[in-house]
Amino acid sequence: MSVLLKLQNKKISATFTGDIAENEIRDTFIEITETYSIKNISCILFYFKDITSYTPPKNALQKHKTISHFTASWNRNIKAVIVATHPDIAIIAKGFVKNQANLNWNYYYFDNLEDALIFCK
Q1: Can you give the pLDDT at residue 18?
Q2: CA pair distance 108, 42, nearest whole angstrom
Q3: 0.85 exceeded by the pTM?
Q4: How far is the C-alpha of 28 from the C-alpha of 5, rounded, in Å?
């Protein structure tokens, strides 16, 4: 897996390519919270480009809820935008959107980057 992080105008993009192992998305999320000032972030865009394989983690929603709980104490207004066409990632992303009442941020799913970028503006 390869991930490229970029900060621009209070927005972070995390672009994933290739194979994604079970905890790599979680590890990237932790890296974001350790590297950037979450207080000033308005949107985190998780873009899954050219994914060849994905191993979904067990209890993905619960793990993410635990991690995002701490960052929500600094900023509850972050939009978490997920762009994915890989079917396994899309299922997880749609699960976040469906269950966001139990999570700490607002989650949005897009199947194309252009619409997601417009939304994040």
Answers
A1: 94
A2: 13
A3: yes
A4: 9
